[in-house]
Amino acid sequence: xxxxxxxxxxxxxxxxxxxxxxxxxxxxxxxxxxxxxxxxxxxxxxxxxxxxxxxxxxxxxxxxxxxxxxxxxxxxxxxxxxxxxxxxxxxxxxxxxxxxxxxxxxxxxxxxxxxxxxxxxxxxxxxxxxxxxxxxxxxxxxxxxxxxxxxxxxxxxxxxxxxxxxxxxxxxxxxxxxxxxxxxxxxxxxxxxxxxxxxxxxxxxxxxxxxxxxxxxxxxxxxxxxxxxxxxxxxxxxxxxxxxxxxxxxxxxxxxxxxxxxxxxxxxxxxxxxxxxxxxxxxxxxxxxxxxxxxxxxxxxxxxxxxxxxxxxxxxxxxxxxxxxxxxxxxxxxxxxxxxxxxxxxxx
Length: 348
Known about the structure:
Residues 46-53 have low confidence and may be disordered.
């Protein structure tokens, strides 16, 4: 089996230390997990793997989409690791599907639905607790009146802080917390620079524990693997993601993993490894879904060290319909960004 594994940041030479730290860590981890899978020919793009990993690095020159169009038919399967913004993951998945190569992840329709966070909200709002979300057009695309500020002052009538974010954002990029109309307008200008869409999202700010749930899915059913703590800090109205811990023990753990499982099973076509971001409101005993990531996420790097099976191989099995019967986590792993590196610390 000839598998192409590519991670967008390293494959394209993206010059962003924060993104590269997570991207390289995920790529290294999945290659290590897949190196002994059956008798395959494993190819990685944009990253020199260690000698212990039986893979062949490929240097992609020029446009990634064009390279994939020209070369993907040479492979039996492909595991893409790419951001959702600007429909990047969706468009790459479409190319893989078009050439009848097996996608070791979610299908393009599921990727599309989870890429746009407002579409995800509408798909889930009647089924689980999702943070109330409004779609707001940027000033240049707004049609109602000439006084944009007055038309959106109602957001702050109840004194609740608001979260503004790109509708197709990744991680915490572009996510801002505001408390007034003036801050709203400043955030409006900031977010507009980070998205090609004519609108952004506004949500109530919910104070609580930021977490994610890692799951394996076969397109219909999902098995939760772990509840993960997210180290998220608010700095000058902007939210930053610094790392986390796997697993997290919390009084709302059971409720959180059940909600994540229900959400993932609601969206047909989610396959392989999927991450669900949530907020645990311990005061009200509530969990609120934030978004679904239809791809490998950073906690994979930690989880693979303490789970009772090879997580990379389990992804491939899940694509073929087989989900693990039992999930056991032996230990705890902390992970954090340190410049261009994502460091992990395994605690038994």
